[in-house]
Amino acid sequence: MSKKQHYTITVNGKEEEFLAEPRELLIYTLRERLNITGPHIGCETSHCGACTVTIDGKSVKACTMFVAQADGKDVTTIEGIGGPDNLHPLQNAFKEHHGLQCGYCTPGMITRATKFLEENPNPTEEEIRFGMAGNICRCTGYQNIVKSIQAAAAEMSAVREAAE
Amino acid sequence: MIPAAFEYYRPKDMAGVLSILEEHGDDARVMAGGHSLIPMMKLRMADVGHLIDLQDVEGMSEIDISGNTIRIGAMVTQHDIIDHHALSAAAPILREAALQIADPQVRYMGTVGGNVANGDPGNDMPGLMQCLDATFHLTGPDGEHTVAARDFYEAAYMTAREDDQVLTAVSMPKPAGGHAYEKQKRKIGDYATAAAAALIVKDGFTCASASIAMTNLSDTPVYSEAAGAALVGTSVDDAAVGAAVAAMLGDIDPTEDNRGPIAFKKHVAGVILRRAIERAWSRA
Amino acid sequence: MKDEVTSREERIENLKGMGCSRKRVEDARFTQGKGNYVDDIKLDGMLFGDFVRSPYAHAKVVSINTEEAMKVPGVLAVLTAADLAPLGLHWMPTLAGDKQMVLADGKVLFQGQEVAFVVAEDRYAAADGIEAVEVEYEELEVLVDPFKSMGSDVVLREDTVDDAGKPVDGAHGPRKHHNHIFTWEAGDKDPTFEVIDAAEVVAEETMYYHRTHPCPLETCGCVASMDKVNGKLTLWGTFQAPHAIRTVVSLISGIEEHNIRVISPDIGGGFGNKVGAYPGYVCSVVASIVTGKPVKWIEDRMDNLMTTAFARDYWMKGRISATKEGKITGLHCHVTADHGGFDACADPTKFPAGFMNICTGSYDIPTAFLEVDGVYTNKAPGGVSYRCSFRVTEAVYFIERMIEVLAIELSMDAAELRRINFIKKEQFPYTAALGWEYDSGDYHTAWDKALKTVDYAGLRAEQAQRVEDFKAGKTRSLMGVGLSFFTEIVGAGPVKNCDILGLGMFDSCEIRIHPTGSAIARLGTISQGQGHATTFAQILASEIGLPADSITIEEGDTDTAPYGLGTYGSRSTPVAGAATAMAGRKIRAKAQMIAAYLLEVHDDDVEFDVDRFVVKGAPERFKTMKDIAFAAYNQAIPGIEPGLEAVSYYDPPNMTYPFGAYVCVMDIDVDTGTTDIRRFYALDDCGTRINPMVIEGQVHGGLTEALAVALGQEIAYDDMGNVKTGTLMDFFLPTAWEVPNYETDHTVTPSPHHPIGAKGVGESPHVGGVPCFSNAVQDAFRAFGLRHTNMPHDHWRIWKTANELGLHG
């Protein structure tokens, strides 16, 4: 065991301060220390993306980052993307288009998709499949995930256009 | 999968990095994005007593294109490369290769420095850097050193970098001619079954120069001088490509793994190189 | 009143009952990160347990030294077999009638086997403790090949021999060898052999259905909490069969069943991985009893792939005979089944090879014989049904390959060969040569629809042109047309022949209607993504006339749910779905009496109409189910008890037999072995369709798992018994990039014996998909002389096939 260090991380807009061993993996910090259990653990070797969060504007697999690396950073999880009163269009679209089954990959999937659509607001199907390839789903075969993301992109575009 | 405990450092400058390296010797490791090292630590296959995180070190995240030289800081990520328009215009092969590495999330974290310095034969950047005839910039207690990418790799995870040195940047001449990075893999996130980087300069209807390097077909990346030479002066016709492939096959030394037996890998290496040459030539 | 102006169609629509694509009620919490999976559970003072695992596949455990581990800060206990032996818990019964070491009892039989259980204050201390446990091993000869194991002098399991070294009987009869587990037979041997020996045409083939793994995205795990004050044990876990787990825990621990509460919270996919009982569950319970604190155990991905619940590993040797015209006359199948170090198959007790005897498939085969030999090796135990009913994937793969091989032998088109051998519509119910009574089917209609939709003749013409072009050197790509027609056997099952550990495989539903006309229903099953909370409410909505949106479905808590055998083998809809409908009908029967009383007519003078009872011939006189529910609780009705509740335990009279017709069009790069799925058409007939959207989602998912298995997914071992595919780098789970879009279609042939005619669908796409993908690969090479090559068809194996056929010049 190494000495505990003092860390400050902003998670979903809230500053969190705590003591932890540097080897604590960010996914456990979120899930066990801060009780933010939306991001999940699937493979632990950065292949499945169930643990995906957004850190300073990047999609990151939280199983492959030490809490020490995240010190001082801004983290967004599925819990920060939308809740009962302000659902994100992606959350709605996944429900509407049956983009999930067991739900285990869903938080990481939607979190990744928010970032993906930020970078590519009007993607083709091929671009969606490539841009979402860091997230594994065992249930849906992806067809309805792709459909959900297309639908959310269309809705978000419409909202943007209406605002302009 | 929980790693053993370690001391963590996040120095602000290179002097800080070097002093920790000096104090702890080979018990210390520098880490960039961590996407090679952290899984190894979690599997307890890498034992790191002192972990030096380079993320706050100044001056390692820039991409400079000046005149005929491109310089890429070691902390530049694959995502940065994909996203950098000037770099994509100056050296499109970098973007083409970076898009074939791992997956989107890993590309946000995976760095050029980590990819080239680790010495993992599966990494794509080392072969690419050899193709581009890049130079690696190392900083150590004795100051700055440079090593040619083509001289850097000695064996799997064994490189010309000393334990007390840090790879800070790669630089390369702005590539001319046509390019291609061709990679066969089992799925997104996999290392190459075989990958080929090719740069070809055309003069009229003949090949003026050609540079070819292969990935994951030996315990180091393989720069195949002979393969390039086989193309020079030819019209890159079928015979020339065949000769280049034959020359390359003489330089690689693949081993059997889950991706397949040696004969298969050699066959695929030939097909992949042929496709890389054809695409590079079509763009030259 | 609103009801009076609402049309009948609107009333039907308002119910969101059977047949509509109702959106899932589960999704609100999952899309907001508010699912509750077992690893999300956090209890005061909770400890973490994890295993020291064997690096060797076969070794004597000479000594275990836990001294240093106990010095690691935060480590509280290290359990070994020596600690469990006085409690009789160092071994546990498996679902297959065998027993399995909970912790290494003197030796280890597979790599990754559980050797010691370290209990610590957090996962970090547990991991450090594991590193500090010193185990001395003495390596023994490793047997990874079942054929070699059957001839080896090495005795893998000391409990298989008597003092003289002679094999003793196993759970399913005599052993042929000390490493032999069982022989299981179905059908008639001599008549089958006579038919085959005398046949005009015989095709023979040996095929290996490789070892793979269900690999749900969430691994297995549990939290055990022993409340010593009340003597109650609560066990949360990733259990596909929570009630069975409760009974098993009670039987092996001696804790009375009413003092055990098993809870399956949200489950992150199962696919068969979470049916069995694992050492982690037993050790967590013991550790909680020992420490008096809750103990959590969660597998990591390597543990999962290496130790819990592999699937397949079947060596299948077949002979199929036919007339020159292609009419099949007989089928013989012999299987050598590699079960690993312990027989931990999850099959009904009387079926040690599951329903492998459905291997006559969709064809009218007059005589057949099946024999299966189970064998021990130095591999992980398991043999679960990965997204299929018991061994049905193996059976369907076998027959769908044998058909292709026979077509080659006959120089016949494989689609036509299928057509002339299908069981005809008028033959149902049809008793197959290996014993099963197929309840219903219309194979010709489904097949014709499939072939017409994909323009089968056009595909064959295109393929022939491709072969010409290839031979002329114009292309290096071949085209494969993969066909499969499958019949599944699901919904285990009738208690007369289906039990697991003596527990009959009925299932259950209990309904309570609330006074204001909403309801809760509890079932003995447990969803792992199938959407039960959505679809079972639809069944009830149609049966009892209350809106699905007003019905809560609850599963997984053994203190509240009625007893049932859980969710696997596509049994939820065939069994629990039937129980739901039957319980709904009991509600309706009582509601009819109440309605008649309220309408002041005789019981027989009212009839059910969507959401109400109406007076026959006077539809303006009615009572809605909502009215009736209120009256049931608030009005004294002579001769009728207050309340509106019902429970049904449903023992199905037969299995159900979903079927389907799949076509896959694939391009293959002969030089690199890469594949490109250009088109995949899937027609499923699962009987009555409850929710088309959910069915389509199940088909997409099942096909994708089939694609993975056929094209690369395997648990591979080297000669020393080391697992070569222990992480998701090497164990193939496709991403969105590797997966095509699928076309789905259907016919509807309701099950005649199921209350609503439904048959189950979750596993069909996997069962039918694997042979379809495989047949596409093999079909591409048929013109060049290929008869059969084994899966997985990853790049190098396809390349090897092309190479051996001389296609590389």
Major β-sheet of chain A, in short?
A: 5 strands, mixed
- Outline the low-pLDDT stretches of chain A: none
Tally of individual domains of chain C: 3
Classify the fold: give the CATH topology of the largest domain in chain A. Answer: Ubiquitin-like (UB roll)
Largest sheet of chain C: 7 strands, mixed
Task: Tell me the overall shape of chain C.
Answer: globular
Annotation keywords:
heterotrimer; A: 164 residues; alpha+beta; Ubiquitin-like (UB roll); 15% strand; globular; C: 809 residues; Aldehyde Oxidoreductase, domain 4; 7-stranded mixed β-sheet; 6-stranded mixed β-sheet; 21 helices; 33 strands
Short description:
The complex is a heterotrimer of chains A (164), B (284) and C (809). Chain A is α+β, with helices and mostly antiparallel strands and 164 residues long.
Structural commentary:
The complex is a heterotrimer of chains A (164), B (284) and C (809). Chain A has 164 residues and is of the alpha+beta class. In chain A, strands 2-1-5-3-4 form a five-stranded mixed beta sheet. In chain A, strand 1 and strand 2 form a beta hairpin. By secondary structure, chain B is α+β, with helices and mostly antiparallel strands. Chain B has twelve helices and 14 strands. The longest helix of chain B has 22 residues. Chain C has 809 residues and is of the alpha+beta class. Chain C has 21 helices and 33 strands. The longest helix of chain C has 28 residues. The mean pLDDT of chain C is 96. Chains in contact: A-B, A-C, B-C. Chains A and C meet through helix 1, helix 4, helix 5, helix 6 and helix 7 of A and helix 3, helix 6 and helix 19 of C.
List the helices and strands and how they pair.
The complex is a heterotrimer of chains A (164), B (284) and C (809).
Chain A: E1 5-11, E2 14-20, H1 26-33, E3 52-55, E4 58-61, H2 67-70, E5 74-76, H3 78-81, H4 89-96, H5 106-119, H6 125-131, H7 143-163
Parallel strand pairs in A: 1-5
Antiparallel strand pairs in A: 1-2, 3-4, 3-5
Chain B: E1 7-9, H1 14-24, E2 28-31, H2 37-42, E3 50-53, E4 63-66, E5 69-73, H3 78-83, H4 85-90, H5 92-98, H6 104-109, H7 112-117, H8 125-131, E6 135-140, E7 143-148, H9 149-152, E8 153-155, E9 158-159, E10 166-173, E11 178-184, E12 194-203, E13 206-215, E14 222-223, H10 225-231, H11 238-251, H12 262-283
Parallel strand pairs in B: 1-3, 2-3
Antiparallel strand pairs in B: 4-5, 5-10, 6-7, 6-10, 8-9, 11-12, 12-13, 13-14
Helix pairs in contact in B: 10-11, 11-12
Chain C: H1 2-5, H2 8-15, H3 27-31, E1 47-53, E2 59-65, H4 67-71, E3 75-79, H5 81-84, E4 91-93, E5 99-101, E6 107-108, E7 114-120, H6 123-132, E8 134-139, H7 146-149, E9 180-187, H8 189-198, E10 201-212, E11 221-227, E12 232-237, H9 242-253, E13 260-263, H10 279-291, E14 295-298, H11 301-307, E15 310-322, E16 328-340, E17 367-376, E18 382-384, H12 392-410, H13 414-421, E19 430-431, E20 437-438, H14 443-453, H15 456-471, E21 477-487, E22 499-500, E23 503-504, E24 507-513, E25 519-523, H16 532-544, E26 551-555, H17 572-599, E27 606-609, E28 612-615, E29 618-624, H18 625-634, E30 645-650, E31 659-669, E32 675-685, H19 692-711, E33 743-746, H20 764-780, H21 795-804
Parallel strand pairs in C: 1-14, 12-13, 15-18, 16-17, 25-26, 32-33
Antiparallel strand pairs in C: 1-7, 2-6, 2-8, 3-7, 4-5, 9-17, 10-15, 11-12, 11-14, 15-16, 19-20, 21-31, 22-23, 24-25, 24-30, 27-28, 28-29, 31-32
